[in-house]
Amino acid sequence: MEKLYTYLALGDSYTIGEALPLPESFPYQAVQLLRKEKVHIAPPEIIARTGWTTDELAAAVNAHTFLKHYDFVSLLIGVNNQYRGRSVEEYNMECGPLVERAVALAHGKPEHVFVLSIPDWGATPFAAGRNRETITSEIDQYNTMNRALAAQYKTQYIDITPGTREALGDPSLVASDDLHPSAAEYARWAQKLAEGIRAQLK
């Protein structure tokens, strides 16, 4: 009997695809891409909520009853830490254990964990009237940290941030709430994630 692969997505509004139907979120789009290539994979299990910071995601993870293991795990968290003005050092301290937990949930296989960079919401219409340069600079600092954590725990790293900055000149990449990515932007993330998963299946 063909193996059914499992995928766990941990995060915040970017993981649930805020302002869009759930099937247009990047975890669901990635699964659909893999299914088109005849990969037998279950719908993603998503532990994410709009507004969550690293400590709130950690609390939810600690309270949740998971499967024993997942074949693949993605983690995208931190934008709300930045939005609330929390320090990069605090983010680093709280995100490290989340990456470690993600590896444990992925059969202890770090190469099956995908840490995604934080999108730059400073490029969206929502940021009009705010200091876009400051937002961009802070997002870069956060992403320096999560990239270093991915290297430390030997996980995969998917840098989706440069693409999100194209929203400044391309409104089609932003959802109707003027803040979150559109299905077209999520499709680009899903493509990268599906490619990463496919590479591990070979």
UniProtKB/TrEMBL annotation:
Q: Which SUPFAM superfamilies match?
A: SGNH hydrolase
User: What are the SGNH hydrolase-type esterase domain coordinates in residue numbering?
Assistant: 9-187
Q: Which Pfam families match?
A: Lipase_GDSL_2 (PF13472)
Q: What UniProt keywords apply to this chain's record, in alphabetical order?
A: Hydrolase
One GO molecular-function entry: hydrolase activity
Keyword Hydrolase carried by entry = yes
| The protein's name | SGNH/GDSL hydrolase family protein
Q: Which organism is it from?
A: Flaviaesturariibacter amylovorans
